[in-house]
Write a structure and sequence with these properties.
Elements (H helix, E strand, L loop, with lengths): L31 H9 L3 H4 L3 H10 L14 H22 L1 H4 L4 H14 L8 H8 L5 H18 L7 H23 L6 H10 L6 H29 L1
Pathway: Cofactor biosynthesis; ubiquinone biosynthesis
Pfam family, one: COQ9
Family: Belongs to the COQ9 family.
Length: 240
Protein backbone atom coordinates (compact mmCIF):
# COMPACT_ATOMS: atom_id res chain seq x y z
CA UNK A 1 0.00 0.00 0.00
CA UNK A 2 1.31 3.49 -0.78
CA UNK A 3 0.03 7.06 -0.42
CA UNK A 4 0.04 9.92 -2.88
CA UNK A 5 0.69 13.32 -1.39
CA UNK A 6 0.60 14.41 2.26
CA UNK A 7 -2.60 13.33 3.96
CA UNK A 8 -3.93 11.68 0.81
CA UNK A 9 -6.22 8.69 0.95
CA UNK A 10 -4.14 5.49 0.72
CA UNK A 11 -4.14 3.98 -2.75
CA UNK A 12 -4.24 0.20 -2.82
CA UNK A 13 -2.39 -1.43 -5.69
CA UNK A 14 -1.94 -5.07 -6.55
CA UNK A 15 1.58 -6.42 -6.31
CA UNK A 16 1.73 -8.64 -9.38
CA UNK A 17 0.47 -9.27 -12.86
CA UNK A 18 -0.39 -12.53 -14.54
CA UNK A 19 2.99 -13.01 -16.17
CA UNK A 20 4.72 -12.86 -12.76
CA UNK A 21 3.09 -16.01 -11.37
CA UNK A 22 5.63 -18.58 -10.26
CA UNK A 23 4.64 -22.12 -11.13
CA UNK A 24 5.23 -25.16 -8.96
CA UNK A 25 8.46 -27.11 -9.53
CA UNK A 26 6.44 -30.20 -10.43
CA UNK A 27 5.24 -28.37 -13.55
CA UNK A 28 8.61 -28.95 -15.17
CA UNK A 29 7.72 -30.85 -18.35
CA UNK A 30 10.99 -32.80 -18.24
CA UNK A 31 10.39 -34.26 -14.78
CA UNK A 32 9.00 -37.78 -14.15
CA UNK A 33 6.35 -36.25 -11.91
CA UNK A 34 5.02 -34.09 -14.73
CA UNK A 35 4.96 -37.00 -17.19
CA UNK A 36 3.13 -39.23 -14.75
CA UNK A 37 0.54 -36.59 -13.90
CA UNK A 38 -0.01 -35.69 -17.55
CA UNK A 39 -0.59 -39.35 -18.41
CA UNK A 40 -2.73 -39.80 -15.31
CA UNK A 41 -5.22 -37.28 -16.71
CA UNK A 42 -6.04 -39.88 -19.38
CA UNK A 43 -7.17 -42.22 -16.59
CA UNK A 44 -9.30 -39.63 -14.78
CA UNK A 45 -12.43 -40.18 -16.94
CA UNK A 46 -12.40 -43.81 -15.76
CA UNK A 47 -11.11 -43.56 -12.19
CA UNK A 48 -11.90 -39.98 -11.28
CA UNK A 49 -9.53 -37.65 -9.45
CA UNK A 50 -8.12 -40.49 -7.38
CA UNK A 51 -4.66 -41.85 -6.62
CA UNK A 52 -5.56 -44.88 -8.74
CA UNK A 53 -5.14 -42.71 -11.85
CA UNK A 54 -1.60 -41.76 -10.78
CA UNK A 55 -0.74 -45.38 -10.00
CA UNK A 56 -1.95 -46.65 -13.37
CA UNK A 57 -0.08 -43.86 -15.14
CA UNK A 58 3.23 -44.62 -13.43
CA UNK A 59 2.89 -48.28 -14.38
CA UNK A 60 2.56 -47.42 -18.07
CA UNK A 61 6.08 -45.93 -17.88
CA UNK A 62 7.42 -49.06 -16.21
CA UNK A 63 8.03 -47.37 -12.86
CA UNK A 64 7.80 -49.43 -9.69
CA UNK A 65 5.06 -48.49 -7.27
CA UNK A 66 7.76 -46.95 -5.05
CA UNK A 67 7.70 -43.85 -7.26
CA UNK A 68 4.41 -42.95 -5.60
CA UNK A 69 6.56 -41.33 -2.91
CA UNK A 70 6.95 -38.39 -5.33
CA UNK A 71 3.31 -37.48 -4.76
CA UNK A 72 3.34 -36.18 -1.22
CA UNK A 73 -0.12 -34.65 -1.56
CA UNK A 74 -1.66 -37.70 -3.21
CA UNK A 75 -4.88 -36.91 -5.04
CA UNK A 76 -4.43 -33.16 -4.62
CA UNK A 77 -1.26 -33.29 -6.75
CA UNK A 78 -3.40 -34.59 -9.62
CA UNK A 79 -6.12 -32.03 -9.05
CA UNK A 80 -3.66 -29.14 -8.88
CA UNK A 81 -1.99 -30.39 -12.06
CA UNK A 82 -5.35 -30.19 -13.83
CA UNK A 83 -6.03 -26.68 -12.50
CA UNK A 84 -2.62 -25.29 -13.42
CA UNK A 85 -2.48 -26.97 -16.83
CA UNK A 86 -5.89 -25.67 -17.88
CA UNK A 87 -5.06 -22.16 -16.68
CA UNK A 88 -1.79 -22.09 -18.62
CA UNK A 89 -3.56 -23.31 -21.75
CA UNK A 90 -5.47 -20.02 -21.82
CA UNK A 91 -2.24 -18.24 -22.75
CA UNK A 92 -2.02 -20.48 -25.80
CA UNK A 93 -5.62 -19.62 -26.68
CA UNK A 94 -4.77 -15.92 -26.67
CA UNK A 95 -1.65 -16.32 -28.81
CA UNK A 96 -2.84 -18.98 -31.26
CA UNK A 97 -6.62 -18.63 -31.68
CA UNK A 98 -7.69 -16.29 -34.48
CA UNK A 99 -11.24 -16.16 -33.11
CA UNK A 100 -9.96 -14.65 -29.86
CA UNK A 101 -7.71 -12.17 -31.66
CA UNK A 102 -10.73 -10.78 -33.50
CA UNK A 103 -12.59 -9.97 -30.27
CA UNK A 104 -12.52 -6.28 -29.53
CA UNK A 105 -13.89 -5.53 -26.06
CA UNK A 106 -12.63 -6.75 -22.70
CA UNK A 107 -15.85 -8.31 -21.43
CA UNK A 108 -16.30 -10.41 -24.58
CA UNK A 109 -12.75 -11.68 -24.14
CA UNK A 110 -13.44 -12.56 -20.50
CA UNK A 111 -16.50 -14.56 -21.55
CA UNK A 112 -14.52 -16.37 -24.22
CA UNK A 113 -11.70 -17.34 -21.86
CA UNK A 114 -14.01 -18.46 -19.05
CA UNK A 115 -15.88 -20.72 -21.46
CA UNK A 116 -12.58 -22.08 -22.77
CA UNK A 117 -11.58 -22.88 -19.20
CA UNK A 118 -14.90 -24.64 -18.60
CA UNK A 119 -14.34 -26.65 -21.79
CA UNK A 120 -11.22 -28.02 -20.12
CA UNK A 121 -13.50 -29.75 -17.59
CA UNK A 122 -15.68 -31.49 -20.17
CA UNK A 123 -13.68 -34.76 -20.41
CA UNK A 124 -13.92 -35.06 -16.62
CA UNK A 125 -17.46 -33.72 -16.24
CA UNK A 126 -18.87 -36.52 -14.11
CA UNK A 127 -16.00 -36.06 -11.63
CA UNK A 128 -16.29 -32.28 -11.11
CA UNK A 129 -18.19 -32.74 -7.85
CA UNK A 130 -15.37 -34.91 -6.55
CA UNK A 131 -12.78 -32.32 -7.62
CA UNK A 132 -14.63 -29.45 -5.92
CA UNK A 133 -15.05 -31.46 -2.75
CA UNK A 134 -11.32 -32.03 -2.43
CA UNK A 135 -10.65 -28.34 -3.06
CA UNK A 136 -12.63 -27.23 0.01
CA UNK A 137 -11.13 -29.78 2.43
CA UNK A 138 -9.07 -27.94 5.10
CA UNK A 139 -5.61 -29.17 3.94
CA UNK A 140 -6.29 -28.00 0.36
CA UNK A 141 -8.45 -24.91 0.54
CA UNK A 142 -5.55 -22.44 0.85
CA UNK A 143 -3.76 -23.59 -2.31
CA UNK A 144 -7.08 -24.06 -4.10
CA UNK A 145 -8.14 -20.47 -3.38
CA UNK A 146 -4.76 -19.16 -4.51
CA UNK A 147 -5.02 -21.06 -7.79
CA UNK A 148 -8.58 -19.82 -8.34
CA UNK A 149 -7.45 -16.21 -7.96
CA UNK A 150 -4.53 -16.83 -10.30
CA UNK A 151 -7.07 -18.03 -12.86
CA UNK A 152 -9.14 -14.88 -12.47
CA UNK A 153 -6.05 -12.70 -12.61
CA UNK A 154 -4.85 -14.41 -15.77
CA UNK A 155 -8.23 -14.13 -17.48
CA UNK A 156 -8.48 -10.43 -16.63
CA UNK A 157 -4.91 -9.75 -17.74
CA UNK A 158 -5.20 -11.75 -20.98
CA UNK A 159 -8.43 -9.89 -21.75
CA UNK A 160 -6.61 -6.57 -21.62
CA UNK A 161 -7.26 -5.43 -18.05
CA UNK A 162 -4.05 -3.70 -16.95
CA UNK A 163 -5.56 -1.89 -13.95
CA UNK A 164 -3.50 -2.10 -10.76
CA UNK A 165 -5.73 -0.41 -8.20
CA UNK A 166 -8.42 -1.48 -5.74
CA UNK A 167 -10.96 -1.98 -8.54
CA UNK A 168 -8.90 -4.96 -9.68
CA UNK A 169 -9.60 -6.78 -6.40
CA UNK A 170 -13.35 -6.40 -6.76
CA UNK A 171 -13.16 -7.56 -10.37
CA UNK A 172 -11.14 -10.61 -9.37
CA UNK A 173 -13.56 -11.47 -6.55
CA UNK A 174 -16.49 -11.14 -8.91
CA UNK A 175 -14.90 -13.34 -11.57
CA UNK A 176 -13.67 -15.95 -9.08
CA UNK A 177 -17.04 -16.42 -7.44
CA UNK A 178 -18.82 -16.45 -10.79
CA UNK A 179 -16.44 -19.12 -12.05
CA UNK A 180 -16.99 -21.45 -9.08
CA UNK A 181 -20.76 -20.98 -9.42
CA UNK A 182 -20.55 -21.96 -13.10
CA UNK A 183 -18.41 -24.98 -12.28
CA UNK A 184 -20.87 -25.99 -9.56
CA UNK A 185 -23.70 -25.77 -12.07
CA UNK A 186 -21.63 -27.75 -14.58
CA UNK A 187 -21.22 -30.57 -12.08
CA UNK A 188 -24.98 -31.06 -12.10
CA UNK A 189 -25.66 -30.22 -15.76
CA UNK A 190 -27.13 -33.10 -17.76
CA UNK A 191 -27.67 -31.18 -21.00
CA UNK A 192 -25.87 -32.39 -24.17
CA UNK A 193 -22.26 -31.13 -24.23
CA UNK A 194 -23.05 -28.95 -21.21
CA UNK A 195 -25.06 -26.56 -23.35
CA UNK A 196 -26.90 -25.16 -20.34
CA UNK A 197 -23.63 -24.39 -18.57
CA UNK A 198 -22.28 -22.34 -21.45
CA UNK A 199 -25.59 -20.51 -21.84
CA UNK A 200 -25.50 -19.68 -18.14
CA UNK A 201 -21.91 -18.46 -18.54
CA UNK A 202 -23.07 -15.90 -21.11
CA UNK A 203 -25.74 -14.70 -18.72
CA UNK A 204 -23.64 -14.57 -15.55
CA UNK A 205 -20.65 -12.96 -17.22
CA UNK A 206 -22.79 -10.09 -18.43
CA UNK A 207 -23.29 -9.02 -14.80
CA UNK A 208 -19.82 -9.28 -13.30
CA UNK A 209 -20.22 -5.99 -11.49
CA UNK A 210 -23.29 -7.18 -9.58
CA UNK A 211 -22.01 -7.77 -6.03
CA UNK A 212 -25.42 -9.09 -4.98
CA UNK A 213 -24.95 -11.89 -7.48
CA UNK A 214 -21.43 -12.47 -6.14
CA UNK A 215 -22.80 -13.10 -2.64
CA UNK A 216 -25.43 -15.47 -4.02
CA UNK A 217 -22.72 -17.36 -5.93
CA UNK A 218 -20.61 -17.75 -2.79
CA UNK A 219 -23.56 -18.99 -0.75
CA UNK A 220 -24.54 -21.48 -3.47
CA UNK A 221 -20.98 -22.80 -3.83
CA UNK A 222 -20.38 -23.20 -0.08
CA UNK A 223 -23.70 -24.97 0.50
CA UNK A 224 -23.05 -27.40 -2.34
CA UNK A 225 -19.40 -28.15 -1.54
CA UNK A 226 -19.81 -28.47 2.22
CA UNK A 227 -22.53 -31.06 1.74
CA UNK A 228 -20.42 -32.85 -0.88
CA UNK A 229 -17.44 -32.77 1.47
CA UNK A 230 -19.41 -34.39 4.27
CA UNK A 231 -20.53 -37.13 1.89
CA UNK A 232 -16.95 -37.73 0.75
CA UNK A 233 -15.68 -38.00 4.33
CA UNK A 234 -18.47 -40.43 5.20
CA UNK A 235 -17.72 -42.60 2.16
CA UNK A 236 -14.00 -42.69 3.00
CA UNK A 237 -14.75 -43.61 6.60
CA UNK A 238 -17.01 -46.42 5.41
CA UNK A 239 -14.25 -47.83 3.18
CA UNK A 240 -11.80 -47.55 6.08
Amino acid sequence: MRTIGLGAVPKVVRSYHSYEHDEDPFFNKESPKYRILEKAMEFVPEYGFQHKAILESSRTFGYSDAIQSLFHNGTFDLIKFHLVRERLRLTEVVSKTEEFKQLSDENTKVKYLVKKRLEGNVPYGKHITQLQTYLVLPPNIGEASEELHKLSDDIRFLSGDSANDFAWYSKRLSLSTTYVALETFMAQDKSPNYTNTFELADKRLSNLGDLGQVYNDVEEFLFYTVNSGLNLIKSQATRG
